[in-house]
């Protein structure tokens, strides 16, 4: 497999790694895959997850681009007054423009974990070139069945009542601790600048409905860290009951995996799951023309074989 | 800034070269050596910040990923310490070639510091070695890593375990376990700075060892966050500005008497 480093964006400030598709499996009507940062983790992804997915998809014949939004990873910060949401959507679209211009890719799968999943969703709503969304821990919402499964065992358990009282006492004592100590303890830490706020469920349901009408395919991975919001298979679909997903939605609910998918076996599960979903949804068609290599965006000492 | 691949097609390393941001030619260069695993993720932003300060001080900088890490080629499962030391050596040659320098400095954090210390041995093209919270004892380092996972070691028939999502093979584990800088026969010909975020007996041992071997040594404690391996689910970064500035000062000559 062949990868190359490139600079692109409004002022060539965005750093990306382009994974070329295996030429024996590439086809011209397959979508390109674009990876969006999760929080402030750079484009390699949590524990290199994005690298693994990009290379697996490349070997299956998909063009992939993982890049850093401005101010994250290796990309320089922007000098305008766009909000993080605005600039993220804008830059995701620039990444699509790049693959369209350089590789003739006309359709795209946007992929992200956590905030990357949110940005994939927001971008898909405004750009019809997006035909697939791969979301790891996306917006999810509780259902009545969730409540029953979540609270009923606790209501009936004296141990749960006791744990709840202790948790409240701990919370109170934390609040009473002096703030300067907390600040000092966090000094030197940089937390993600993006505050994740789940929109009202009806709003997301409407958005997903619009995407489904467009025929967008969804691969949705939900980890055990979402257990406060989702606790059974089928809940994701049920929480958006008005959306006609038809055969568009694949949900992988893995309560044993954590949010950043640090288990090696869970990583392989995700990589294999996304690869299988993409190959099934966009099977290899007519062979793609060879990529133009006459317009490199930055110095390339070697092409790499992975 | 120039992101690029260097090395060989079989072992291509991803790096970012940053030229100095000051006018006029500069003869200072620094290769930055990342830590490993979750510490690499935590440190990426700090290294970028240090790069910005170094280039403003007129230093050519090359940051790069070892094979099987970050954007470089290869799988994490296939790596050895020898290969990573060779990667550091390759990066040194790359920066010298790119910037037209005869000598460069090495700055390494945690395991990156340890690799850098091992690489400088016998070389005459290193002007300064900066060890930032280096891993002095592989045994203790591994014990801390295993504690993060609640692991005790490799189970029967297991050749790879995951440490916060990064594969650690039995081979790499054994190689790291052999590390003991406080007993190593280190006699770098360059100036050495040990810059640490906190006092620790193992840092003292390393300082004493290098002193006894006659190194041109500077030891400095800059109280700051040093919990690089602390795990959380949301990928916060560590940016201890004081210690970064102290290192930049050593490289740029501001803090050198």
Could you explain the architecture of this structure?
The complex is a heterodimer of chains A (306) and B (257). Chain A is an alpha/beta fold and 306 residues long. Chain A is built from 9 helices and 10 strands. Chain A has 2 domains: 231 residues, Rossmann fold; 32 residues. A 9-stranded mixed sheet of chain A has the order 9-8-6-5-3-4-2-1-10, sandwiched between helices. With 257 residues, chain B is α/β, with parallel strands linked by helices. Chain B is built from 7 helices and 11 strands. In chain B, helix 1 packs across helix 7, helix 2 packs across helix 3 and helix 4 packs across helix 5. The longest helix of chain B has 19 residues. The two termini of chain B are 31 Å apart. The mean pLDDT of chain B is 92. The interface between A and B is large, with 47 and 41 residues. Strand 7 of chain A pairs antiparallel with strand 11 of chain B, so a sheet runs across the interface.
């Amino acid at each position: 497999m062949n990868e190359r480093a490139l600079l692109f964006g409004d002022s060539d400030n965005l750093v990306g790694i382009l994974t070329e598709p295996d030429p024996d499996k590439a086809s011209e009507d397959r979508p390109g895959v674009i990876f969006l940062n999760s929080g402030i983790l750079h484009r390699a992804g949590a524990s290199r997850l994005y690298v693994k997915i990009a290379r697996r998809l490349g070997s299956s014949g998909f063009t992939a681009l993982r890049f850093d939004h401005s101010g994250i990873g290796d990309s320089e910060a922007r000098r305008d007054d766009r909000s993080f949401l605005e600039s993220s959507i804008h830059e995701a679209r620039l990444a699509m423009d790049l693959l369209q211009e350089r590789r003739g890719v006309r359709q795209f799968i946007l992929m992200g974990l956590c905030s990357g999943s949110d940005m994939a969703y927001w971008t898909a709503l405004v750009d019809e070139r997006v035909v697939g969304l791969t979301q790891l821990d996306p917006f999810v919402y509780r259902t009545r069945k969730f409540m029953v499964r979540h609270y009923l065992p606790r209501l009936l358990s004296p141990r749960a009542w006791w744990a709840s009282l202790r948790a409240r006492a701990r919370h109170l004592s934390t609040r009473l601790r002096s703030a300067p100590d907390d600040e000092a303890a966090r000094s030197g830490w940089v937390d993600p600048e993006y505050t994740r706020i789940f929109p009202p469920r009806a709003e997301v349901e409407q958005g997903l409905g619009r995407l489904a009408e467009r025929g967008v395919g969804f691969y949705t991975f939900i980890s055990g860290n979402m257990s406060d919001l989702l606790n059974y298979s089928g809940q994701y679909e049920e929480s958006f009951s008005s959306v006609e997903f038809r055969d568009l939605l694949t949900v992988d609910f893995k309560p044993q995996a954590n949010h950043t998918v640090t288990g090696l076996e869970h990583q392989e599960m995700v990589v294999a799951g996304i690869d299988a979903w993409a190959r099934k949804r966009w099977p290899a068609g007519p062979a793609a023309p060879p990529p133009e290599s006459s317009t490199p965006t930055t110095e390339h000492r070697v092409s790499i074989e992975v | 800034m120039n992101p690029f691949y260097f090395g060989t097609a079989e072992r291509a390393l991803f790096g970012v070269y940053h030229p100095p941001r000051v006018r006029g030619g500069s003869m200072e260069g620094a290769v930055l050596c990342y830590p490993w695993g979750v510490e690499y993720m935590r440190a990426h932003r700090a290294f970028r910040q240090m790069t910005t300060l170094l280039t403003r001080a007129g230093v050519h900088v090359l940051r790069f990923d070892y094979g099987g890490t970050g954007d470089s080629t290869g799988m994490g499962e296939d790596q050895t310490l020898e290969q990573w030391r060779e990667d550091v050596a390759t990066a040194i040659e790359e920066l010298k070639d790119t910037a037209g320098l005869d000598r460069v400095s090495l700055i390494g954090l945690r395991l990156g510091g340890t690799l850098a210390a091992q690489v400088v041995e016998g070389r005459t093209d290193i002007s300064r070695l900066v060890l930032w919270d280096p891993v002095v004892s592989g045994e203790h380092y591994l014990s801390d890593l295993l504690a993060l996972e609640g692991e005790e070691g490799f189970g029967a028939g297991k050749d790879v375990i995951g440490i916060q999502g990064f594969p650690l093979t039995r081979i790499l584990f054994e190689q790291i376990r052999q590390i003991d800088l406080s007993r190593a026969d280190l006699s770098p010909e360059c100036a050495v700075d040990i810059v640490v975020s906190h006092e620790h007996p193992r840092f003292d041992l390393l300082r004493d060892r290098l002193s006894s071997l006659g190194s041109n040594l500077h030891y400095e404690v800059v109280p700051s966050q040093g919990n690089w391996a602390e795990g959380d689910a949301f990928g916060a970064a560590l940016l201890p500005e004081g210690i970064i500035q102290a290192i930049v000062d050593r490289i740029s000559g501001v803090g050198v008497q």
